[in-house]
């Protein structure tokens, strides 16, 4: 059995009466990139702070790499790299000085520090600004220093709270590929409210809303859900809908206007080919045919909206 | 670990003009006071020669110098300590320390040692001035060492209060004001003792000034030493507690 890198059981956190995180349980194994998704104020940051030992949970327990975060905090934290929502930078230091300091905090030896600082700088594209004061760097570069700090000591688990905030599109791309690369031999949790980011870099998705975990899937599962099939097609002249009755898997057909139709079908076998064939053969003139994907936004809004409706 | 934090703390102090200006201003004022003491000594030197068991160079110059230094440091130490934890919390850099494999005690001790490094430098600069007198005169070196010890213990106590205030205050200025107020209170606590002999034993014991003066006069007693050690450890433990309770309630 492989040890789980993170095991969170029944985590809850109250701020006075306000419940920020309510009975959240999940786990993370090596090689997984877990996307933590939720609207503002959903409890993403609170959950991450609890995972990193910055905040004590009101109830529940966290095991990091087999170590209980409360009983063996030092061993547990040694396996953690954490980038909070605001990168914790000593702005009066240079990038090099800061990273060396972080290395010492994580009990690396002098030689290890030199190596890992070099590697982290290369990975985050910081080699050119190594001698500059952090305060003089742009927000994007500061964010990168924050990421470098989190991966510096080569921790098994990397927790990134909104890692791509403030980066330009090229940098976002670089960071995403870095996350993917790191994801091969680490466990990564990243939080975001940008849905496409999860699709781009994660292997697992969790959606949290109002402190409750409402959705937990692999990215494949999510993609499949997003395919809840509909086929949209437009013809030149109206078509007789009876001719589709032979095709298996079609649930119902909707006529959205005079010449455009929506076919809802089962998830697994899309009848799109046979539909195309029939429409073409009917001689009504096929103008447009496309599979309608439910976007991630739809799922997200569907899930979070449902909660609100209750 | 502790030393990494301490050395960074010290570095940061000297990267800002704060440490330099404090050192410069302090040295200027104390050098002026030192000179006036020498002036006094040379003017009464002839009279002293006629008195048996007359106070020497050490009593007339070193004691007042260290006494003055202690009062000035009472004002200065809160300025140095106010940012220790408070600013880290405000800049959100505290989470770097909290998510690193460090215990609360290591963080607090690191911070404390860092500020002690700075204060040690100040004490060193103050002690260098009387040492220069050795070129032309004699010092009671035992008493001189007691003065250095007294001042070191005193500033450590100041620093421990400042550190604790920095742990609990939300803004550096508040931390500075609170620690200054508390220090001043402890300083003047014994003044009431002079009024119609109504002094309370407790106040007498708590007064930081009395213990400082005892050691300063060359009377090295375990009561005074342990007062300072207890004082320092109390506030360090309180700081550690407060840092750890941060995790519980934020």
Tell me the CATH architecture of the largest domain in chain A: 3-Layer(aba) Sandwich
Instruction: Write down the oligomeric state.
Output: heterodimer
Question: What Rg of chain A, in angstroms, do the CA atoms define?
Answer: 24 Å
Mean of all residue-level pLDDT scores of chain B:
88
Radius of gyration of chain B: 20 Å
List the secondary-structure elements of chain A in sequence, H or E: EEEHEEHEHHHEHEHEEHEEEHEH
Structural class of chain B: mainly alpha
Provide an overview of this structure.
The complex is a heterodimer of chains A (310) and B (250). Chain A is an alpha/beta fold. Chain A has 10 helices and 14 strands. Chain A has helices spanning 44-51, 73-78, 95-105, 110-124, 139-151, 169-183, 195-201, 219-226, 272-282, 296-309; strands at 6-15, 18-28, 33-37, 59-64, 67-68, 80-83, 157-161, 187-192, 204-209, 212-218, 230-235, 250-255, 260-265, 286-292. In chain A, the strands form 3 sheets. A 6-stranded mixed sheet of chain A has the order 6-7-8-3-9-10, sandwiched between helices. A 4-stranded antiparallel sheet of chain A has the order 2-1-4-5. Chain A has a 4-stranded antiparallel sheet with strand order 12-13-11-14, covered by helices on one side. The model of chain A has no long low-confidence stretch (mean pLDDT 83). With 250 residues, chain B is an all-alpha fold. Chain B has 11 helices and no strands. In chain B, helix 2 runs parallel beside helix 6 (104-131) and helix 6 (104-131) runs antiparallel to helix 7 (141-168). The radius of gyration of chain B is 20 Å and the shape is globular. The two termini of chain B are 26 Å apart. The chains are: A alpha/beta (310), B mainly alpha (250). Chain A binds chain B through residues 15, 49, 52-56, 73-75, 77-78, 80, 82, 84, 86, 88-93, 101-102, 104-107, 149, and chain B through 1, 4-5, 8, 11-12, 15-16, 91-103, 247-248, 250.
Keywords:
heterodimer; A: 310 residues; Rossmann fold; Alpha-Beta Plaits; 2 domains; six-stranded mixed beta sheet; four-stranded antiparallel beta sheet; 14 strands; 28% strand; elongated; B: 250 residues
């Amino acid at each position: 059995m492989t040890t789980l890198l993170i095991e969170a059981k029944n985590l809850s956190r109250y701020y006075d009466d306000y419940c920020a995180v309510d009975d959240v349980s999940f786990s993370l194994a090596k090689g997984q990139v877990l996307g933590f998704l939720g609207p503002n104020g959903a409890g993403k940051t609170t959950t991450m702070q609890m995972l990193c030992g910055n905040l004590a949970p009101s109830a529940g327990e966290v095991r990091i790499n087999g170590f209980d975060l409360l009983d063996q905090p030092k061993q547990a934290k040694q396996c953690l790299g954490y980038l909070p929502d605001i990168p914790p930078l000593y702005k009066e230091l240079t990038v090099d000085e800061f990273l060396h300091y972080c290395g010492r905090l994580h009990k690396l030896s002098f030689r290890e520090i030199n190596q890992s600082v070099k590697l982290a700088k290369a990975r985050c594209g910081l080699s050119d600004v190594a001698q500059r004061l952090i305060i003089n760097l742009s927000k994007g570069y500061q964010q990168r220093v924050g990421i470098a700090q989190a991966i510096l000591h080569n921790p098994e688990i990397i927790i990134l709270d909104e890692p791509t905030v403030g980066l330009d599109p090229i940098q976002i791309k670089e960071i995403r590929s870095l996350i993917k690369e790191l994801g091969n031999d680490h466990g990564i949790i990243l939080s975001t409210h940008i849905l496409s980011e999860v699709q781009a870099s994660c292997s697992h998705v969790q959606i949290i809303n109002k402190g409750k975990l409402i959705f937990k899937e692999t990215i494949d599962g999510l993609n499949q859900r997003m395919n809840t099939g509909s086929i949209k097609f437009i013809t030149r002249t109206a078509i007789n809908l009876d001719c589709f009755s032979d095709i298996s898997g079609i649930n119902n057909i909707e006529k959205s206007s005079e010449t455009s139709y929506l076919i809802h079908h089962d998830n697994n076998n899309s009848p799109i080919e046979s539909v195309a064939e029939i429409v073409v053969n009917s001689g009504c003139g096929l103008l447009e045919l496309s599979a309608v994907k439910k976007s991630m936004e739809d799922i997200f809004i569907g899930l979070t909206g449902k909660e609100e409706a209750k | 670990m502790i030393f990494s934090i301490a050395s960074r703390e010290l570095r940061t102090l000297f990267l800002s003009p704060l440490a330099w200006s404090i050192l410069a201003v302090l040295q200027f004022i104390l050098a002026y006071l030192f000179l006036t003491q020498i002036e006094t000594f040379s003017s009464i030197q002839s009279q002293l020669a006629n008195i048996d068991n007359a106070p020497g160079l050490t009593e007339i110059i070193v004691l007042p110098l260290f006494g003055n230094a202690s009062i000035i440091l009472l004002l200065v130490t809160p300025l140095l300590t106010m940012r220790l934890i408070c600013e880290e919390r405000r800049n959100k850099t505290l989470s770097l320390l909290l998510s690193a494999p460090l215990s609360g005690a290591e963080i607090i001790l690191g911070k404390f040692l860092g500020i002690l490094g700075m204060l040690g430098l100040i004490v060193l600069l103050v002690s260098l001035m009387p040492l220069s007198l050795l070129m032309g005169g004699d010092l009671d070196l035992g008493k001189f060492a007691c003065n250095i010890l007294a001042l070191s213990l005193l500033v450590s106590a100041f620093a421990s209060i400042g550190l604790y205030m920095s742990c609990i205050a939300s803004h550096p200025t508040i931390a500075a004001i609170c620690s200054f107020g508390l220090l001043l209170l402890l300083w003047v606590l014994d003044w009431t003792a002079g009024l119609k002999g109504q002094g309370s034993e407790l106040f007498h014991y708590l007064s930081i000034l009395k213990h400082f003066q005892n050691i300063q006069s060359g009377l090295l007693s375990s009561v005074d030493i342990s007062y300072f050690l207890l004082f320092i450890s109390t506030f360090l433990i309180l700081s550690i507690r407060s840092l750890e309770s941060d995790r519980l309630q934020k």
